[in-house]
Amino acid sequence: MTVKVAIDLALDRLFDYEVPEALKEKLAIGQLLSVPFGHREARGFSVEIAAEPTDTVDRSKLKAVTAIVDETPFFSPALLALVRRIAAYTAAPLESVLRAALPAAVLKKNARAKEQLFVSPLSATPEILDAMTKRQRWLYDNIVRLGGGWLAPLCAELKTTPASMRALASRKAVDIVARARRRDPMGGRRVMPSRPLPLNEEQAAALAAIKELAEPAPGDSPSAAHPSRTILLHGVTGSGKTEVYLQAIAAELEKGRGAIVMVPEIALTPQTVRRFASRFGDKVAVLHSGLSDGERYDEWHRIRRGDARVVVGPRSAVFAPVANLGLVVVDEEHEPSYKQEDNPRYHARDVAVLRGSIEGAAVVLGSATPSLETWMNVRRGKYSCATMTRRAGLGSLPIVHLVNMQEEPRRSFFSGVLLDAIRLRLERGEQTILFLNRRGWSRSVACEACGRVITCPSCDLAYTYHRVDDCLRCHVCGGWRPTPRTCPACGASALTYRGTGTQRIEATLAKCFPQAAILRMDADSTSRSRSHDDILSAFRRGEAQILVGTQMIAKGLDFPNVTLVGVLNADSSLNMPDFRASERTYQLISQVAGRAGRAELPGEVVVQCFEPSAPAITAAARGDYAKFAERELKDREENFFPPFCHLAVVALKAQDFKLVSTWSDMYAKSFSAFAEKNRSAGLVVSEAVPSVLEKADGWYRWQIVLRAKSAKAIVAAWRTILAHRPPPKALRCAIDIDAHNLA
Ligand code: ADP
Ligand code: ZN
User: Fold this and answer.
1) Which of 206, 486, 576, 705 is within CB 3.0–4.6 Å of 386 for a Cys-Cys bond?
2) Element (H or E) spanning 350, and its range?
3) Cα Rg of the chain (Å, integer)
């Protein structure tokens, strides 16, 4: 008997070992083994067990496994199969995927959480209450209100000392005990249990469709590959998707199965967690980037033991060791944060679908603005779809005004409509959010007079400005032109490389409304003085009437007193040099429009733009997703972009400019030659271009874009060419299949 072992050395291969007689009975795949490697002992996971080594190795030379470190496998056969599929698909070394799938903390010794002191309130008798000082009574009341808490954070929150807490304990008003502190969704506090809400018709239909998918077809064996059980839950903001998830999960728990809920990291707020914890209590495990090693260790083991059956977390939660998985929910499935930008460059939504098919679990993709990849899968009949068009709770959808800035006085930031609307809010004591859709990381060139951005004629995508040689380059086809001095569309000499900053907006606003208090939130303001949360809570408390900010404020905000949202330059994201620019713009505007007016106050949204007739803008203003998707898919098909192809970015970097430019050109030519020779693969190859961030941390960065009908064809080309011409040590090469970042 031999075993293939993945050793954590970023070597893109497995190693064969002989299994000694004594270990034969106990050996299983997914276990952590100790094996001799060179002159030392190494650790690795058993990946495959075979009677004979599959490679042409000399069996007599095989070394033997030294020991099984932990008999309980860290990876179930299903998870191991998943990991191997991802490694093959993304062209990433298997160990890198294993590492991504298993938190490092889990393998650390001594990561078990230490005991800490927890304060819980006792029910105090009238005598005890009478004996308290005024200050103690205040403390006691607050501890009761909070449901207790860990000693140190509780003292900080109530601005008191451990000594005062002990004084309360000696009065038998509270109890202080040492407990193993595990990351629990509510930080040790009790959550009010919540009961399922009666569903409206649309919700009930969606739930029924999910339950049907989750039901195994007769004759299904748990290990067989299943046809897709994926459903898109297409519901407007506030249509009650979360309530549907909760009830679908409850149904799975009843059947003894578990569930994973993925949310974008930014949306993993205490409110989100509370909604799950209040329905499922202790059965919920929360994974979070802020967990300590100990907390991560505990949560992971709670999941593996089956104590926690519902896992809530960001993209890496897709690998949670939930046994007997019934359901995976990917909330806001269109969010770019589901794509990992480092090795392994997987997309958590796609991994969820794959895991569902391997384990026979239903997969729910929830969004108000689905990604076009998902939408296309619905249209092709691969996924089913449930639609929710109405708000479930209070509040109606806001009124949206589109304002054409070309008809406004030149170079004014605010349209008359918006100024009037702000004035009205100030008079009524309501609040306004102004949202600056910044051109972001890209540096495209726009005309301040007509608002147009200079685009590549063959790809219809914004050119990227390259300062080094003062020219404009297309990051998809590699075409370029010198930077013009005047706008090719209107002739004005008002070309600019930068979008307007939030500081300038804030200053101008202060001049227009000297009586208003204004808060600003962007990367600068948050890193410098107050934190993100400080600014938001000040705004929530009504310390300011207007909040100005970038993308940061577009997400997950729910202010009851905000009745006006202004989007200042809605179309600037339309001009990012990225084929998803329209999609992102659509999502951004819908998201903003969906946020306003959640409470009883009716909401209003003013969208300012230079191209009000752009389909992404008009459709978003009307909330007409189907229309937008139809139009956008046509464009994508014509230009051979995803979802009609797979697009990969080959990223090359070196500290020597000459080295990276020469090799990038050479590789681009090799890919082209490969495409010529293997025409059936249908590979489309760009020229090599410097990346937007041409030089970062002393590294020069270049890229090549590859497109083909199948991702496999791209990986095959990549492997062939790298094997034929291995890069020199000083050159780093990586491939990003289904890239989301074209920079
Ligand atoms: P989504 O996740 O689609 O944005 P939510 O699940 O957050 O929507 O629901 C929006 C609001 O509607 C929440 O306050 C929720 O409690 C409420 N809600 C959801 N379903 C119902 C229902 N069936 N009846 C009453 N209120 C509901
Ligand atoms: Zn081009």
Assistant:
1) 206
2) helix 348-359
3) 28
Integer Cα distance of 509 and 419 in angstroms: 9
- Are 214 and 252 in contact by the 8 Å Cβ rule? The answer is yes
Q: Ligand 1 pocket, 278 CB below 6 A?
A: no
191 C-alpha to center of ligand 2: Å? 54
Which pLDDT belongs to residue 731?
96
**Ligand 1 pocket, residue 395 CB under 6 Å:** no
pLDDT score at 526 = 54
Q: What is the pLDDT of residue 520?
A: 85
Is residue 631 within 8 Å of residue 582, measured between CB atoms? no
**240: Cβ below 6 Å to ligand 1?**
yes
Q: What are residue 475's phi and psi, to 5 degrees?
A: -85, 0
Q: By the 8 A CB rule, do 335 and 343 touch?
A: no
What's the CA gap between 653 and 743, in Å, rounded?
A: 13
Residue 741 has a pLDDT of: 80
Q: Residue 112's Cα: distance from chain center in Å? A: 28
Mean pLDDT of 520-546: 75
| DSSP bridge pairs for 232 | 365, 385
Q: Residue with the nearest Cα to atom 23 of ligand 1?
A: 199
Query: What's the CA gap between 238 and 233, in Å, rounded?
Result: 13
- Ligand 2 mean position to 489 CA, how many Å? 18
Using alpha carbons, list the distances in angstroms from residue 646 to 184, 459, 743.
40, 16, 17
Ligand at minimal distance from the CA of 686 is 2
Q: Checking DSSP bridges between strand 115-121 and strand 149-150, what pairing results, if any?
A: antiparallel
* Alpha carbon distance 173, 121 (integer Å): 6
Name residue 190's amino acid.
Answer: R
Other Cβ atoms less than 10 A from the Cβ of 235: the count is 24
Beta bridge partners of 466: 471
Rounded to the nearest 5°, which phi and psi values hold at 714? -65, -45
For the whole model, what pTM was predicted?
0.82
Q: Per-residue pLDDT tens for 491-519?
A: 888 787 654 567 778 888 999 999 999 99
Q: Is 242 in the pocket of ligand 1 (CB under 6 A)?
A: yes
Residues counted in the chain: 743
Whether 237 is in the pocket of ligand 1, judged by its Cβ within 6 Å, is yes
Q: Residue 26 has which token pair?
A: 């106990």
- HSE of 713, CA atoms in CB hemisphere, 13 A: 20
**How far is the centre of ligand 2, averaged over its atoms, from the C-alpha of 575 (Å)?**
13
